[in-house]
Design brief:
The structure holds 2 protein chains of 2 kinds. By secondary structure, chain A is an alpha/beta fold. Chain A is built from 9 helices and 17 strands. The N and C termini of chain A lie far apart (about 50 Å). In chain B, helix 3 crosses helix 4. Classes of the chains: A alpha/beta, B alpha/beta.
Chain lengths: ~325, ~260
């Protein structure tokens, strides 16, 4: 069977969930060969093997942390050249998309970003994408070179499938461009203890109706009762009530959870672009005319400061 | 010293309109009004701020690749304060993908002459966010992308990149390609004076032959990716909407429990 390169997103050896989803999808089109780079790369092997990686190519070097993007492109290029894969899959983060695009250009291939599904086709892998604020679903494929495809988080349920996971050291020679952009400082984001927004199965978001940074505690309490991530609309972010990293929408994160709860969000097109593919959508808003209600499976017209705390209390009570 | 900034911008269908595909599965531009991509306004704004904070002579050129109407996007950028504009227009460009677009942009940027290229983080139609990285790869210069803060001093560009896991401080020597996010700073509105002045600013038109790009390197036929089908998302079936009369939260909890979320 053809081999498929899978770029591994990990934090000091802890593999992030979107990579496990990629391994699941990769098995539909071939045998996954994982590429893990940087500090802790070797520690990823056991997890990757459990999820179907037949080989794990690793390379540790300071360059991956000290310089932006290009060293990772160099490494993936090296892996591509020794494996000659049927496709290259990369998680669809901002950095993942940049890595994928530069690799594609270097190997003379087309690139597809933000796939939400992937299947084998007669002419190579077929990617499903959701475009124009989720108004359309498209099927695309790479028509030149080795398909390079980035896949959004939550595009597949993770299915373990033990494989050999033989660890091999990858030989990487860094290009002249590799050291072009220096990372002079890095401040890790403080952990909130909540799931990562793009990866979460449930997202609870607050908008203009939350009316103040301190009031986001109401949103956070509901999120915690559901084990959810917290999102915010652009209006709430621009007002300084919640960090930009939590922004859901066209210029923020695009999320596709099992359940999306919008509280005090009117549902402007820019917000809808970021959440419309959520499986189940519920909304709480005072304004019965808010466009968000066009999308909902269940909507409550009412004051979020009455409805949300009651909902949280009820959920906590039911969970006992 | 002088600093030449090229700002790459895109003319896109208005996201608040009803966007469709044409029969060839490219974006139907006739159906919806076009405008300067909102995210590119932030790139123009940062170019203007770099110019205002610089002791050097700064020349800001705004560059777009697109159909005739794309001149509107250039005019908007000129009215904000850019100095001149370049419009790359050629019938053979219809349907060009991101990789092809990066080729045309790279050739145009080189022909224009540059120390710094500034782009928006992504277009609001394709939303791939890969063109700045592709452009840097093609030009062989550093990419300093997705910046929420940017400054230029003594031939060095510095910036802040807010990633999912960490905030990074970045630094690169010019020439370089920068992209900026919507957190970089509110874009200014063109003044009446700016709008009047823009009418007199030069807009150069180039076609593929001016850039030594062959027609078979661009266009829909030569795209490196193929869209095989597009289906409109079925309208959502109307959901249940209740008015809160004191039990709204409990009713919603009941619904969520029924869906096995609780």
């Amino acid at each position: 069977m053809a081999e498929v390169l899978v770029y591994v997103d990990h934090a000091d050896g802890a593999v992030r969930k979107p990579t496990l989803e990629l391994l699941t999808l990769a098995r539909r089109i071939g045998d996954p060969v994982a590429v893990a780079l940087g500090a802790g790369a070797g520690d990823t092997a056991a997890t990757l093997a459990e999820h179907g990686a037949v080989r794990v190519l690793t390379h540790e070097a300071a360059e991956y942390a000290d310089y932006l993007v290009v060293p990772k492109v160099d490494a993936l290029r090296a892996a591509h050249d020794i494996v000659s894969p049927a496709a290259v899959l990369v998680p669809s983060s901002a950095e993942g998309k940049e890595i994928a695009a530069r690799l594609a250009l270097r190997i003379g291939s087309g690139v597809i970003t933000d796939a939400i599904d992937l299947e084998a086709g007669d002419q190579g892998p077929v990617a499903t994408q959701s475009v124009f604020a989720a108004a359309y679903t498209t099927k695309s494929r790479v028509s030149k070179g080795t398909p390079v495809i980035t896949v959004k988080p939550n595009s597949a349920a993770v299915e373990p499938a033990p494989a050999a996971g033989a660890v091999e050291a990858l030989d990487v020679t860094f290009s002249e461009q590799a050291t072009g952009t220096k990372v002079t400082a890095r401040t890790p984001r403080e952990s909130t203890g909540r799931p990562e927004l793009t990866e979460a199965a449930i997202v609870v978001s607050g908008g203009r109706g939350v009316n103040g940074a301190e009031n986001f505690a109401v949103i956070e309490a509901l999120a915690d009762s559901l084990g959810a991530a917290v999102g915010a609309s652009r209006a709430a972010v621009d007002a300084g009530w919640y960090p930009h990293t939590n922004q859901v929408g066209q210029t923020g994160k695009s999320v596709s959870p099992q359940l999306y709860v919008a509280a005090g969000i009117s549902g402007a097109i820019q917000h809808r672009a970021g959440m419309q593919t959520s499986k189940t959508i519920v909304a709480i808003n005072k304004d019965a005319e808010a466009p968000i209600f066009e999308l909902v499976d269940y909507g409550v017209v009412g004051d979020l400061f009455d409805v949300v705390p009651q909902l949280t209390e009820e959920i906590v009570a039911r969970k006992g | 010293m002088s600093l030449r900034i090229v700002v790459t911008v895109k003319y896109v269908p208005d996201a608040t309109g009803d966007r469709h595909f044409a029969d060839d599965l490219t974006v139907d531009r006739d159906d919806v009004d076009g405008l300067l991509s909102e995210l590119d306004e932030y790139a123009v704004e940062q170019a203007l701020r770099i110019s205002e904070n610089s002791d050097d002579d700064v020349e800001i050129t705004v560059l777009t690749v697109g159909p005739e109407d794309a001149k509107d996007a250039l005019r908007k950028a000129l009215s904000m304060g850019a100095d001149k504009a370049i419009h790359v227009e050629d019938d053979d460009l219809h349907g060009t993908d991101a990789i092809g677009t990066s080729l045309v942009l790279a050739k145009a940027v080189e022909k224009a002459g540059y120390d710094l290229v500034i782009s928006g983080m992504a277009s609001t139609d394709g939303t791939m966010g890969v063109v700045p990285a592709l452009l840097a790869e093609r030009l062989g210069v550093p990419q300093v992308t997705l910046l929420s803060e940017v400054s230029v001093e003594d031939g060095t560009v510095k910036g802040r990149r807010d990633g999912d896991a960490a905030t990074e401080r970045l630094e690169a020597a010019l020439p370089a390609v920068v992209s900026v996010t919507d957190q970089s700073g509110e874009a200014r509105y063109p003044s009446f004076k700016g709008i009047m002045a823009a009418k007199k600013k030069p807009v150069e038109s180039w076609d593929l032959s001016d850039l030594d790009v062959d027609a078979d390197e661009v266009g829909l036929e030569n795209a490196w990716t193929t869209v095989d089908g597009a289906t409109e998302r079925p309208a959502r079936t109307a959901g249940t909407i209740v008015k809160d009369e004191g039990e709204g939260g409990r009713q919603l909890a009941e619904f969520l429990a029924g869906q096995k979320f609780v």
